[in-house]
Design goal:
Helix content: over 70%
Oligomer: single chain
Radius of gyration: 15 Å
Order of helices and strands: HHHHHH
Distance between the termini: 33 Å
Structural class: mainly alpha
Strand content: under 5%
Length: 114
Amino acid sequence: VLQAVLAFQFAGGGLVKLTGSPEMVDLFAAVGAGQWLRYLVGALEVAGAVGLLVPRLSGLAALGLAGLMAGATATNLFVIGESPWLPVGLLLVSAVIARGRWSATKALAGRVRR
């Protein structure tokens, strides 16, 4: 259930970025890296949301989303000066899922190495 809720959250956030919501356009303009970053983050969020729903990929997807939220937290704190609580919360939930799926992630990595 936690994975599905997190997937829904990231899919929604990613789609808002990809569709060019004025709030997201303004937010990424404030970051100063360009709108390409908005598209990249949106695509990563949607891909991560899909990955959360695929049992073999859920741990890896959660790990990637935790990394993305670490970047979002740093950006909120040091670049745009906004509250970091939403990305911190998403990071923590992603980390819990990544930890819970660690054995599946290790098995996936073992298959890729062969």
